[in-house]
Amino acid sequence: MSQLTASLAGLGSFALYFGLSIVFLMLFKFVYLRITPYDEWALVKEEKNVAAAITMSGAFIGYSLAIASAATNSVGILDFALWGVVALIAQVIAFAIVRFGFMPKLVERIINNEIPAAVVMGSMSIAIGILNAACMTY
Q1: What is the pLDDT of residue 138?
Q2: How many CB atoms lie within 10 A of CB 64?
């Protein structure tokens, strides 16, 4: 029985970090959907817009990679929370870079369900998430 108790000793910390991670994902969804000038949920749910689904999925994956690294490398829950916010800001910046720098017509292309534009945006979000995660080592 002591081996089981030892194995479950970190369950409280797991629950705290996992719970905060879910809160961060919900916060990211809220922020991301507010910064995109189109209603991605409506595009995905009502119009079955694959391009919007790809960009949104890439954003969620990229952000998840970053907060996973923040959880792994943090020295405590406050540190994790701080880096979760930093990760969110980096993902928002990634969207702005692609939208205004690489593809000024990104919005129209996503609304028009153009898959190539969505793949670039989704891939950039994942790439930023990977870089974000790698830079959170100390």
Answers
A1: 65
A2: 18
